[in-house]
Amino acid sequence: MATVALSILFFAEGYRLNLKNFKIVKTGIVFLSTDQKGESVYINGELQDRKTPYAENLTPGQYTAEVTKDGYRSWYQGFKIDPAIVTSFDSIVLFKSDPVISDLTDQRKIDLLNSPVDYLAVSNDKNSLTYGNYEIWQNNFLVTRFSESIQNVSWYPDMEHIVYQQGDEIKIIEKDGYNNTPLVKLLNSDPVNFVVNSRGDELYYTDGGQYKMAKIK
Prior knowledge:
Elements: H1 2-12, E1 15-18, E2 23-26, E3 28-34, E4 40-43, E5 46-47, E6 54-58, E7 61-68, E8 75-81, E9 86-92, E10 100-103, H2 107-113, E11 129-131, E12 135-138, E13 141-145, E14 151-155, E15 161-166, E16 169-174, E17 181-185, E18 194-196, E19 202-207, E20 210-215
Parallel strand pairs: 3-9
Antiparallel strand pairs: 1-2, 3-6, 4-5, 4-7, 7-8, 10-20, 11-12, 12-13, 14-15, 15-16, 16-17, 18-19, 19-20
């Protein structure tokens, strides 16, 4: 009975038996969260029995996490677990793999699209965005470097993702440079205006001289 009680206490305190060397180790925690429903969570390629928000004690080491949903592009991340540390990914957003695109006729949305470029972009010192031919920067930190040039950047409403045009596509990338995701295909590579609404589910943009809207979430 004492052994069982001790085992329960060790488990509750975040200790696990490492089956590789049969030693008791202090675990860390991974936390995954998204505002969408119906996702599947994979840790090291294995489907988990819980969806997001997902939290799990893991022994120290290297892992991969993947969040998937039918009709959406998957989110993927490699990460490291350290003892007694929470590794958190709490801004996961999944975007539609085949967004519904329609003509944009709502004048309020057209006005938003035609507003100054610094909408949602780049005004204060903490969140300023700049870009060159091949690079995106947040303040003095390099977000990512591409082999193909880019045109125009803007913050996504959560300020954790960056929307940008590259060639004939509008894409989105996390501000740490991971999960580079295409949103919509354009008629050509001419620079276009684009903006995402405050809910983050609609992309307004110009394409071939026409106003367009894509449901991206």
